[in-house]
Amino acid sequence: MYQSESFQRESPFVTWSTREPAGACELGKRALLSQGYQIDGTDPVRVKGQKLFQPKPDQGVSLDITLVCLPSNVGAVVYANALQTRFALKAASTSTGVSVAGLGSISLPWSADKEAMVKVGEETVTDPDFYRRLFALIEALDGTSVGSADLGSAEVPR
């Protein structure tokens, strides 16, 4: 698959902010929190968020988003990467062994099956519309009013 990497100058994974890196990542953190993502870590210029989905009773999906905010000539450049991991419920039967001195050993099937969620696939989200929606929300949180709620009312480092 690496052969298809084109390393183009234009990328859906990046946007710019006039804020300093810590302020830009704070807006990213708030955007993810507002959509139900669990936030991990305390690094002011790197945000990791995770949201879990269950499209079917025997399937699970984890969407992990990482935002990295670096200095740029306009304030900050924000890089985003989303990783989608798919899980499936798999059953596995177990057996147990019994050993009797002088007679040898015997293996018997265990009557209970164990079920576990097993990772069945993982891929980077490359859909430009996904990143446009994420970056639009981050931009909207940068001081824009929506209805009666002022999304930019809380202090965010500049």
Task: List the defining traits of the structure above.
158 residues, alpha+beta, TATA-Binding Protein, six-stranded antiparallel beta sheet, two-stranded antiparallel ribbon, 8 strands, 17% helix, elongated, DUF2242 domain-containing protein, DUF2242
What does this structure look like?
With 158 residues, the chain is an alpha+beta fold. It has one domain (10-92, 114-142): TATA-Binding Protein, CATH 3.30.310. It is 17% helix and 53% strand. It is built from two helices and eight strands; from the N terminus they run E-H-E-E-E-E-E-H-E-E. The chain has helices at 21-34, 128-140; strands spanning 14-17, 38-40, 46-56, 59-72, 75-100, 104-124, 145-146, 149-150. Strands 1, 2, 3, 4, 5 and 6 form a six-stranded antiparallel beta sheet that branches.
User: What share of residues is helical?
Assistant: 10-25%
Strand content: over 45%
**What is the total tally of β strands?**
8
CATH topology call: TATA-Binding Protein
* Strand/helix succession: EHEEEEEHEE
Number of domains: 1
- State the name of the first-level CATH class: Alpha Beta
* Spans where pLDDT lies below 50 across 5 or more residues: 144-154
Shape: elongated
Second CATH tier, the architecture: 2-Layer Sandwich
Radius of gyration: 23 Å
Structural class: alpha+beta
Roughly what is the average pLDDT, rounded to an integer?
A: 84
Roughly how many Å apart are the termini? 40 Å
| SS summary, helix count | 2
Could you describe the largest sheet, including whether it forms a barrel? 6 strands, antiparallel
Organism: Thauera propionica
InterPro entries: DUF2242 (IPR018718)
Protein name: DUF2242 domain-containing protein
